[in-house]
Hints:
The chain is mostly helical. Helices cover about 80% and strands about 0% of the residues.
Amino acid sequence: MxxxxxxxxAILIRIISNPISNVVQKKLTVYQHPFFVNFISYSCLAVIxxxxxxxxxxxxxxxxxxxxxxxxxxxxxxxxGFLIKALEMxxxxxxxxxxxxxxxxxxxxxxxxxxxxxxxxGFSGVTLIIAGSYFVLNDSRGKFxxxxxxxxxxxxxxxxxxxxxxxxxxxxxxxxxxxxxxxFASWCIFGALFSFPVLVLFKVDIQKEFRKINQxxxxxxxxxxxxxxxxxxxxxxxxxxxxxxxxxxxxxGSILVTVFFGYRFFQEGHFVxxxxxxxxxxxxxxxxxxxN
Length: 292
């Protein structure tokens, strides 16, 4: 199988696996604190990762690798924690499309840190993403209101996309300073390391959360860990073959899957309108792909 075919496959897998993990995360937050869900998923993946890199001479890695891995871990721990918190409070079919803004964040951060300069198409794509928000950010009556941006779930979602968008740039640098296996391991291990302080910072009762775990939640955690692992591997493979901005833009195909999952699993309304808005936002992402 050629590199181009593998890249397309990785992108498609990433588009599907991310919404699946969001559905499981939202289901888990019904009876578990979102930051605890974040910590458990990172920790389980970290254990697997330690086994993968146990014999690797990690001390030979450059200082650049460690710096980007640490900063990426911090952004990931807080960013994914805020994402799960947003999923607990808001609608999946609204929070998913907001992820389109990640490509905008990725473009800005990639320019500042890596010199990737967007073209006029990139700026046009940003305009479309903002326009599509009009159809997605609806109240219970299906009407757009700027006041929706004040909702706690939306605020958490924007905080998450800024942090995870920044993390994407750090992840790219980790790949450039090592390889895909180490990039996966660093994502998991440093994410687990910094997700624990998030629990302490937000005063989560860890013992209470552990007591809530039962056979049903264990099964959900299993599928969550599998879906996240697949998502990270496919993301890193894509980053290893593409610039950050276009890669994040391509990932926006997951918006349609997220809107459908919100309708299918959580009975969220205004399905057609959200699909239209999502298509406009995806159109913006397609334009961003044309940068450079």
